Automatic annotation (TrEMBL):
GO function terms (MF aspect): oxidoreductase activity, acting on the aldehyde or oxo group of donors, NAD or NADP as acceptor
Catalytic residue positions: E245
Alphabetical list of InterPro entries matching this protein: Ald_DH/histidinol_DH, Ald_DH_C, Ald_DH_CS_CYS, Ald_DH_CS_GLU, Ald_DH_N, Aldehyde_DH_dom, LUC3-like
Pfam families linked: Aldedh
Alphabetic keyword roster: Oxidoreductase
Superkingdom, natural source: Bacteria
Family: Belongs to the aldehyde dehydrogenase family.
Natural source organism: Microbacterium radiodurans
Protein name: Aldehyde dehydrogenase family protein
């Protein structure tokens, strides 16, 4: 390991080789450090400590908890570059663009938003002296299971609102990106009492134990639909409340008359942000006949010219697939599209000269629903572009998926875009962008993309117990 891997925050969260599991650099596959291997016994102890710490943490009140969260956000910002470099190496996303530095900045911003969002008792009935109010109290202990694609940012989405509402948290990072979340927790814990936040870097057995643990009052999970279903089954025994942000196969519809040059940048990054490894990235694009070729050619040119490579190179904005499993999925789906006669306009193959898990930014045209690349979530740098001639047909095809996380409509006519947006089955529908999120705007999926909302007042309520006081 080089000197930079053994100093500062990384040194605080890694263990000796004999005691841990090797974590590779996503781009080079060289070992960054060794993550602790926590067990279900460690989980039991963490939950017990969280349970013991929760009453005192809740008792300090919203004002003091908000002050602590602001101090944590300051700490994140003070250590932003070290956090971003670790994140870039472990997850693979480059430092620049909407990537590692952006993610660390978002972690600080969402922490501040959780601190500052007001949540007051709601008067739901009043008639003379009769009055009913809804108050929002702490639930107790929250178990949070994080994904590998945006490990720091999504961990904050789960942790910060939970802490703000007076809960304590036990968080489990993905096995692929444990160091990033352990580092984030280390920064948080510089300002938190013991037991309020614990990160457990375990395997899938530990994740399954979280889902079924009787000591948890709430489970938050971001990840695949298949795993989300297993969490629902496991949690039935203790009736823990759930927030599930599951997979998405987000559709975009480009309406006739759209100025392609005006939407090109937003369209490209709606697809390829984090090299396509984003739940709410645009995964399948329906384009009207009249501008189909222009959209395909524009995306293909951007795919060929947008810099891809190692994350620590300041010039790159696209990185590798984070892990071999995801690399194999993308390869399989693109190869299947090619075998069906689809036209590979850009990319369509690995880029071994860049590193073992790099796959060229790929645009696939002349493909239809029924192809695996359209029907399955690719979660990587490949977009199928599907031609349509009738808007009603495009809406029906977009809605045919079992998933409903996000969708988008692209048009120069705002009224036409809104009319189509209202007909799309998704938790969020964006107009002339895709995937833009705001810490004050609720976010969550429908159908097999999960349930429950995060962000803003809705997100605070999701990690709270409503109590009606009637008089």
């Amino acid at each position: 390991m080089t000197e930079r891997t053994t100093t500062g925050i990384l040194a605080a969260v890694t263990v000796p080789e004999s005691e841990g599991r090797a974590i590779p650099d996503a781009a080079t596959r060289e070992v960054i450090g060794y993550a602790p291997v926590h067990t279900t016994d460690d989980l039991d102890r963490a939950i017990a400590a969280a349970r013991a710490a929760q009453p005192a943490w809740n008792a300090i009140g919203h004002g003091e908890r908000s002050r602590v969260l602001h101090a944590i956000a300051d700490e994140i910002e003070a250590n932003a570059e070290e956090l971003a470099q670790l994140l870039s190496r472990e997850q693979g996303k480059p430092l620049n663009g909407p990537n590692a530095r952006f993610e660390v900045g978002a972690a600080a911003a969402w922490t501040r938003a959780a601190a500052d969002t007001p949540i007051e008792p709601e008067v739901v009935f009043e008639n003379g002296p009769a009055r009913a109010e809804v108050h929002y109290d702490a639930l107790g202990v929250v178990g949070a299971i994080n994904p590998w694609n945006w490990p720091m940012m999504i961990a904050v989405w789960q942790i910060a609102p939970s802490l703000r509402m007076g809960n304590t948290v036990v968080t489990k990072p993905s096995e692929y990106t444990p160091l990033s979340v352990l580092a984030l927790a280390e920064v948080f814990n510089r300002h938190l009492p013991e037991g309020v936040l614990t990160a457990i870097a375990g395997d899938r057995e530990v994740g399954a134990a979280i889902a079924a643990h009787p000591g948890l009052d709430k489970i938050m999970f971001t990840g695949s639909t298949a795993t989300g279903r297993r969490i629902v089954e496991s949690s039935a025994h203790n009736l823990a409340r759930l927030t599930l942000e599951l997979g998405g196969n987000d559709a975009g519809i480009v309406l006739p008359g759209t100025d392609v040059s005006a939407i090109a940048q937003d369209l490209f990054w709606g697809v390829f942000i984090n090299t396509g490894q984003t739940c709410a990235a645009l995964k399948r694009l329906y384009v009207h006949d009249s501008i189909y070729d222009e959209v395909v050619d524009t995306l293909a040119e951007m795919a060929r010219t947008t810099p891809m490579g190692g994350g620590l190179d300041e010039g790159n904005v696209l990185g590798p697939l984070q892990n071999e499993k995801q690399f194999d999925i993308v390869t399989r789906l693109v190869d299947d599209a090619r075998s069906r006669g689809a036209r590979i306009v850009a990319g369509g193959e690995p880029a071994p000269e860049l590193g073992p898990l790099f796959y060229r930014t790929t645009v696939v045209a002349d493909i239809e629903d029924g192809a695996a690349l359209v029907d399955e979530e690719q979660f990587g740098p490949a977009i199928p572009v599907i031609r349509y001639s009738d808007v009603d047909d495009a809406v029906a095809r977009a809605n045919a998926s079992e998933q409903g996380l996000g969708a988008s409509v692209w048009s120069a006519d705002p009224d036409a875009a809104v009319e189509v947006a209202r007909r799309l089955e998704a938790g969020t529908v964006w107009i002339n962008n895709h995937g833009a999120i705001n810490p004050q705007v609720p976010f969550g999926g429908i159908k097999a993309s999960g349930y429950g909302q995060e962000f803003g007042v809705a997100g605070l309520k999701a990690v709270a117990a409503p109590k009606v006081i009637s008089r």
